[in-house]
Every structure is written in structure tokens, then in C-alpha cells.
Design brief:
The chain is an alpha+beta fold. The protein folds into two domains: 9-120 and 260-276, Diaminopimelate Epimerase, Chain A, domain 1 (Roll), CATH 3.10.310.10; 149-251, Roll (Diaminopimelate Epimerase, Chain A, domain 1). The chain is 19% helix and 39% strand. The protein has a 17-stranded mixed beta sheet that branches. Strand 4 (63-69) and strand 5 form a beta hairpin. It is globular.
Length: 277
């Protein structure tokens, strides 16, 4: 929330492939987000609605980003929101390359041309302790039915490789594994179908948000899992419910490229802010 003296709070609505965000720019004002505030704004009937809320603040580099899920929990990484905000700052400043900081660490974004934006989501976390999992085990084949792969991208991921991703009832499947005891911080859940050596069809259940049309960090985790399993090359096209991302696991990190959209600008009213307070 804002300082008590504020009467309205400007926001931006953005999305990457239907993975939608409310973005607050706190570089020139004081905005303190609480879990209750995130839940109120995230409600799709009584608030604005989002998969994640993102806060832009001044930092040691071009900007610092912080993310909240719709249930009020926080996330260290959000790839599509990072790309959306990077595009916004590039258009604002004329820069083609950005250095952003997050709880995940330093992220680097670039204008990929043709309206596309790329972000380096950093190196994947492959050790059980870093993801984190509840106990030591092989992250390439978890002792769960379906033998999913565990990957960390600043948040935990559990990737199942299936014959037909569209046939999986994700609304029931996702929460079953989001709260699996092997994941003490819960997990994002992906169902991924190998279409070809450089092509994956993937659907996602995001912790704290549910079924989403796309997820950047989930796409990165799925690409890493497929490459580790030797199911694909390290550069793949990933088709999500909301569109297509290109993911390239390079020596310097996992790069993700795709379109973004800045939908509208608006304000949260004093009435709404007062009710949350």
C-alpha cells in the first residue's frame, strides 16, 4: 500500500502470452506491498486480477523487481513479468540492454528485435538443496509417480513428461503436486509433451496462482529438464496455452525470448485502498 496521504495508486496491466501482471512503479513513490494488499488487487472480481504483481524500485542497477502471487505469497522470479517490465523500461529510456536485480539475483534483458524481448533467467538450480527439496535425492528423477524432474529457477519446479499435455486435467493434477511433501516451499507444476528434438508443448500450474496461460520460469525449467533427460536440444520452442516462447540454455544462463503486451494504465482508488487498509 501507499503512504496514508496518497489518494490513488497508479498501476499498469501487462501480460506475456496471457500470463498477466499488475505492475506498480515505485521508483518515484513509496509503495509498501503487503500479502493482504496483493490478494485484494489480485482478486479477479473485486480487484484487478493478475497471475503475479510486480513492483519496480530503484536499485543498484537499472531497476529492482519484486514479485507477489495472487494468493499473497512472494516469488523470487517471474520471467514473463521481467520481460514485460524490461520492455517498458527500454521504451522509456531508449536502452536496448538492461541489468535488473531480483531476489533471484542479477538478470539481464535485451531487445531481441521484432517486438520481442529476451531475458537471461540465470543458471538453473539442479541440486536438491538449492531447489529446495525436503531431502537429498536425484533431481533428474524424483520418487513420485511419473518420475518428474525437479529444477530451481529462483522458484521450485516439478516437470512431468507426458504423452499428451492437453489430456491432463491440470486443475486437479496441479494442486496435488504443488503441495507435495518433497517441496517444502511448494512448487510450480508443468506437464510437458515432446513434439520434436527442438519443440515442446507445455502447460503449467503455478504455485499461488493456479492454471496460467504461460509461465516464463516454468518454460525455462521445462527446457532444462528436457535437455538433462536428453529428450531435446538446449534451444527449444515451447508452445504454451497463451503462445510460444523460445528458450535457450546457454553457458551464461537460460535465455527466454517472446512477445510482451502493455494493456492499459489505471489507478486504484482511495475507496479501494482504504478498504484494504
Amino acid at each position: 500500500m501507499t503512504k496514508k496521504s496518497a489518494t490513488v495508486l497508479p498501476f499498469m496491466k501487462m501480460h506475456g502470452l496471457g500470463n498477466d501482471f499488475v505492475v506498480l512503479d515505485a521508483r518515484d513513490q513509496n509503495i509498501a506491498v503487503t500479502p493482504a494488499f496483493a490478494r485484494a488487487v489480485g482478486h479477479r472480481r473485486t480487484g484487478i486480477g493478475f497471475d503475479q504483481l510486480a513492483l519496480i524500485e530503484r536499485g543498484p542497477a537499472d531497476a529492482h523487481l519484486t514479485f507477489w502471487n495472487a494468493d499473497g505469497s512472494t516469488s523470487a522470479a517471474c520471467g514473463n513479468a521481467t520481460r514485460c517490465i524490461a520492455r517498458y523500461i527500454m521504451q522509456e529510456t531508449g536502452q536496448r540492454h538492461l541489468h535488473l536485480t531480483t531476489a533471484r539475483g542479477d538478470l539481464f534483458a535485451t531487445d531481441a528485435g521484432g517486438g520481442l524481448t529476451s531475458v537471461n533467467m540465470g543458471q538453473p538450480q539442479l541440486d536438491w538443496h538449492d531447489i529446495p527439496l525436503a531431502e537429498e535425492m536425484d533431481t533428474l528423477e524424483l520418487p513420485i509417480e511419473g518420475a518428474p524432474v525437479a529444477t530451481g529457477m529462483g522458484n521450485p519446479h516439478c516437470t512431468f513428461f507426458v504423452e499428451n499435455a492437453d489430456a491432463v486435467p491440470l486443475e486437479q493434477f496441479g494442486p496435488r503436486y504443488e503441495h507435495h511433501p518433497l517441496y517444502p516451499e511448494r512448487t510450480n507444476v508443468q506437464v510437458a509433451q515432446i513434439v520434436g528434438p527442438d519443440h515442446i508443448r507445455m502447460r503449467v500450474w503455478e504455485r499461488g496462482a493456479g492454471v496460467t496461460l504461460a509461465s516464463g520460469s516454468s518454460s525455462c525449467a521445462t527446457a532444462v529438464a528436457a535437455a538433462r533427460r536428453r529428450l531435446t536440444a538446449r534451444h527449444v520452442r515451447i508452445d504454451l496455452d497463451g503462445g510460444t516462447l523460445q528458450v535457450d540454455w546457454r553457458d551464461d544462463g537460460v535465455w527466454m525470448t517472446g512477445p510482451t503486451s502493455h494493456v492499459c494504465d489505471g489507478v486504484l482508488t482511495a475507496e479501494f485502498l482504504g478498504a484494504v487498509e
